[in-house]
Design a protein that fits this description.
Helix content: 25-40%
Largest sheet: 8 strands, antiparallel
Number of domains: 3
Distance between the termini: 64 Å
CATH superfamily of the largest domain: Cupin
Number of helices: 13
Mean pLDDT: 89
Strand content: 15-25%
CATH topology of the largest domain: Jelly Rolls
CATH architecture of the largest domain: Sandwich
Strand order of the largest sheet: 1-11-7-13-5-4-2-3
Length: 473
């Protein structure tokens, strides 16, 4: 195990430490986290820090530690996930690798101690107690409804996928070596205590996970102990390691992560091909041939001036038109995110009530769970493919597969294929303005939709109603 520091003290950069006192009596009161909206949920998550201060001072810049002496919040955090939950969860059919990893940091390296196949709770607890192994539980929001509620709201707030992992580490042990991640990280301490050390990034806002050796990372910039109810944030690329101190029976924390592959670079990789394709339809400069044998040359420096001028022309076109269409990133987000967590209101995901008529007033619902894209017709295999409008939504997504990847898709089963097919609707490009009217969030009369015929207006409203995307008044 890596050598530990003596005192738990902050070193180097200033870290924000805040305290918050309990304000209500009953543990796990609904007022602990405010689920009224995505904005209110995030504000309550990082409280007492204000979101404006967080994004101005900390986001992608530096760590934030919020230490709270709040029994109410500590009790709520513990309710999210605890060691005792594992016995019942194992009985539901968990598997090593897919659902659970067990590991330990040995001589600065991660040693995986997984067995084969299904997880047996007695064996898992034995490895935890005797081998001092850390239990890593993948994506607990699949099983724990409160985490589902939190992460679904955070996905609405960030417009990016939000995953989570639970780490349970016995006393005097460390699960992972010093490393950095490719995600923005929020850590909630649920049970026990965890001793953390953070280090200056070697790669700022890293795009991939990497282990770092002790002799390369230097001294910690921050060192502290998290207790139940405490929250820690640090940007992607922040090198970190954590252990459960001696004298603490075990530590449980949940890592909530977001913004993987969600940078300007990723957005450009998604959007620029469409910009080039559309511009080439109108500008002959992009349709002229490249020089003979260009693809066979080792050095293509002579062509960089031409490429530079084309890129400048594309930039001018983009600035003048204001149009940049991203479809794959949007589709990926909507296809893979959590569905709404509605509890007793789940009936709102089934069409019901009044059918929309020409005189009806309608209003968009679940706006954070639906996107509009313009892309080539996916159902037309002809050489010339018309552009169509697609409305994708996540209302029918499966919570059970959230953030679990596509490793099971090799089976070729109909169920796997269905999971990879986005839910939604397809309309002619002439419907785009009417859809924008509805997406404005205002109540709209069906007969006032920007379409040519009454039939088109009614059919559009009916299609959206069938997918539970509008309310009818």
């Amino acid at each position: 195990m890596p050598k530990k520091g003596g005192r738990y003290a902050e070193v180097g950069m200033e870290m924000q430490v805040q305290s918050k006192r309990a304000k209500v009596e009953a543990a796990c009161s609904p007022s602990v986290m405010n689920f009224e909206s995505p904005d209110s949920l995030f504000a309550s998550l990082i409280s007492p820090i204000k979101p404006e201060e967080f994004f101005r001072e900390y986001w992608e810049e530096k760590p934030l530690l919020v230490q709270r002496n709040d029994p109410l919040l500590a009790a709520y955090y513990q309710s999210l996930f605890q060691l005792l939950d594992l016995k019942e969860l194992c009985s539901q059919g968990l598997y090593y690798g897919r659902d659970i990893n067990i590991c330990r940091c040995v001589n600065g390296k991660k040693k995986v101690l997984n067995k084969e196949g299904r997880v047996n709770y007695a064996q898992l607890k034995k490895d935890f107690d005797q081998k001092k192994a850390t239990i890593q539980f993948h994506q607990p929001q699949r099983f724990k409804e409160e985490l589902w509620k939190i992460q679904e709201k955070l996905e609405c707030y960030f417009g990016s996928l939000v995953g989570s992992n639970v780490y349970i580490t016995p006393q005097g042990s460390q699960g992972l070596p010093p490393h950095y991640d490719d995600v923005e990280v929020f850590i909630l301490q649920l049970e026990g205590e965890k001793h953390w050390r953070l280090y200056k990034p070697t790669v700022h806002l890293a795009r991939e996970y990497n282990v770092e050796s002790e002799d390369r990372i230097g001294n910690p910039t921050h060192e502290f102990v998290l207790k139940p109810g405490d929250l820690l944030y640090f940007p992607r690329g922040t090198i970190h390691q954590a252990d459960t101190p001696p004298g603490v029976s075990y530590s449980t924390h949940v890592t909530i992560s977001t913004y993987q592959n969600n940078s300007w670079g990723d957005f450009l990789l998604d959007a620029i091909p469409g910009l080039v394709f559309n511009t080439a339809k109108e500008d002959v400069a992009l349709r002229t041939s490249i020089p003979r044998k260009l693809l066979m040359q080792v050095d293509i420096a002579d062509s960089t001036k031409k490429l530079s001028s084309i890129l400048r022309m594309l930039a001018d076109r983009l600035e003048n038109s204001g149009e940049l269409r991203s479809s794959d990133m949007r589709k990926d987000f909507i296809m893979n995110r959590l569905p709404p967590c509605l509890g007793c209101d789940a009936d709102s995901l089934t069409p019901g009530g009044k059918l929309p008529k020409l005189d009806s007033k309608i209003r968009l619902q679940f706006r954070d769970h639906a996107v509009i894209t313009v892309e080539p017709d996916q159902e037309n295999s002809d050489e010339i493919r018309k552009e169509m409008v697609y409305v994708y939504h996540s209302l029918k997504n499966r919570r059970e597969t959230h953030m679990m990847g596509t490793e099971d898709d090799d089976t070729g089963s109909e169920e796997s294929a269905a999971q990879q097919t986005p839910h939604g609707l397809r309309f002619p490009l002439s419907h785009l303005d009417a859809l924008k009217q509805i997406w404005s969030g205002c109540t709209v009369c069906v007969k006032e939709l920007k379409l040519n015929s009454a039939e088109e207006k009614e059919n559009l409203a009916l299609a959206l109603w069938t997918e539970c995307l509008i309310e009818v008044f």
